[in-house]
Amino acid sequence: METAIKSCSTSACAFNHNGCTAFAVTIGGSDAKPTCRTFIELDARGGLSSANGKVGACQRLECTHNKDLMCTASSIEVGGSQADCLAYQAK
């Protein structure tokens, strides 16, 4: 199962060009702050030519959508200045 990145409103990310253009992102973070670890703040834009980003791995074992380090949500949204995973739900 592939989990699509439905939207990303983190405008400072170099992979956000009218949506997530990273091939795949990793969701991680610390404590109760699940974030996109692929987030990179640069003036340049990069990644795929279209916004078709997906979740490649999830390091948040306590998330209800995590099974075997993979995201099982049908899609996620990323937002905030630090690229928060807005689909995160603690068990």
From TrEMBL:
<feature type="domain" description="DUF1540">
    <location>
        <begin position="58"/>
        <end position="81"/>
    </location>
</feature>
<feature type="domain" description="DUF1540">
    <location>
        <begin position="8"/>
        <end position="38"/>
    </location>
</feature>
<protein>
    <recommendedName>
        <fullName>DUF1540 domain-containing protein</fullName>
    </recommendedName>
</protein>
<dbReference type="InterPro" id="IPR011437">
    <property type="entry name" value="DUF1540"/>
</dbReference>
<dbReference type="Pfam" id="PF07561">
    <property type="entry name" value="DUF1540"/>
</dbReference>
